[in-house]
Amino acid sequence: MSREERKLRKHLEEHARRELRKANKHMTKVRAGEWKPPRERMDARWIDDFETSQEADQGVGCGPGGRPTKQKRMALTNGMVVEAGLGFCDVLCNGERVRCRTDGDAATGDQVRFSPERRRVEEILPRRTVLSRSDPHNRRVERVIAANIDVVVNVFSLKNPPLRPGLIDRYLIAIGKSGAEALVCVNKIDLLESAEEFEPLLPYETLGIPVIRCSASTGEGIGELADSLAGKLCVFAGHSGVGKSSLLNALDSGLTLDTAAVSSGNQRGRHTTTSSALYRLPNGAMIIDTPGIREFGLWDVGPADVRRYYSEFEKRACAFGDCSHTHEPDCGVKAAVEEGKIAKARYEGYLRILQTMSD
Ligand code: GDP
Ligand code: ZN
User: How far is the CA of 316 from the centre of ligand 2 (A)?
Assistant: First the structure.
């Protein structure tokens, strides 16, 4: 063996010892605080037959970014992340939830390859879509809320709580960036007294964005909502109190998620766990319920990007190619707003978003 080979071998052995030490440390931790799903989640139809590839196959593990791990060939299994925290995630495979260590930024919805023996995620498979937000404590850090989602349901109410102007638009920008489809769901329509109260929805309907009006209380529109989610991986986004948990309960009578009113006199407290969960509806819709979705700041969207998510601004004749549609002369967008061809509320919302970005 040459000197070089000896050196390399020594290096690899040292690396393997380090890995083993790390893995052992983790295993102890997992055993010490063994995870048990809260009772109501067990009732909540855990996805026990999610289509994960069931056969373990042989392969060399890959770390985040495709780096090959240095260990020998090992049995890897495919699974789906149903809960993700810092440095760990719960992977669902053959109906079992396995808590694994992860060096990468595994998010709920991720398809991963993991080693059941080492309880470690070795590879995050490429994501189809990514819904991110900026970290509330450090705006420069990205936090992936969910991956591979097909639809983001933008839930809000017009009354109790009232609609905050521009809120839907902020969500739509984040959804547009994620690559998932957007669906606007206005809940609590039982509280409305006249048809005029639906006016804030008109711009979205004009743009061809699906808008569903429903009430978790009366059941109106719930069938339509269920139909539009059938067979898709979805996430419900919206402020606290708009009725996301109530909608999930209404969509599936097997669910018994706590809602705000229930919990006020309830010792167990509200459905305020810091973990996320994945539910499957009888029609095959899978819904990620994640606390991170309640409020989210735009990630990696600068002022120049914002206008790209306003489809009604496209193909307007502006004098400047890079017109921001704010102060420039001969602006086609401003003209269209004047002529009533672009909803004033949407344009004003756009200006407000730009304003908050420059603050
Ligand atoms: P979340 O924070 O978005 O999950 O909202 P919750 O599901 O906890 O609901 C917040 C409050 O709104 C609770 O008091 C619910 O009973 C109430 N609520 C939910 N959906 C409806 C609805 O369709 N109509 C009415 N009137 N109240 C509702
Ligand atoms: Zn312009």
Answer: 7
Is 259 touching ligand 1 by the criterion CB < 6 Å?
yes
Amino acid occupying residue 44: A
| Residue 46, pLDDT above cutoff 90 | no
- Whole-angstrom Cα distance, residue 187 to residue 218? 10
Question: Quick check: CB of 241 below 6 Å from ligand 1?
Answer: yes
Q: In terms of residues, how long is the chain? A: 359
**162-221 per-position pLDDT tens digit:** 988 788 898 899 899 999 999 999 999 999 999 999 999 999 999 999 999 999 999 999
Nearest to 282 by CA among 45, 30, 9: 45
For residues 350 and 310, the answer to whether their CB atoms sit within 8 Å is: yes
Confidence (pTM): 0.75
DSSP state of 296: -
Q: How far is the CA of 259 from the centre of ligand 1 (A)?
A: 7
State how far the Cα of 276 lies from the Cα of 285, in Å rounded to an integer: 16
Bond before 161 cis per omega within 30 degrees: yes
Instruction: Report the C-alpha gap between 83 and 146 in whole angstroms.
Output: 10
Report the C-alpha gap between 241 and 219 in whole angstroms: 17
- Tell me the H-state helices in the chain: 3-32, 39-43, 167-178, 202-206, 222-229, 244-251, 260-264, 303-306, 332-338, 344-358
Strand 142-147 with 120-124, pairing: unpaired
Cα 260 to ligand 1 centroid, rounded to whole Å: 7
Pairing of strands 142-147, 130-134: antiparallel
Regarding the beta carbon of 232 and ligand 1, being less than 6 Å apart is answered: no
Q: pLDDT digits over 271-312, tens only?
A: 444 556 678 888 889 988 776 566 666 777 888 889 999 999
Both tokens assigned to 200: 């804030």
Q: Determine the distance separating the centroid of ligand 2 and the alpha carbon of 346, expressed in angstroms.
A: 14
Nearest 5°: phi and psi at 162? -70, 160
The finding on whether 191 has its CB within 6 A of some atom of ligand 1 is: yes
- Closest ligand 1 atom to residue 240 Cα is 2
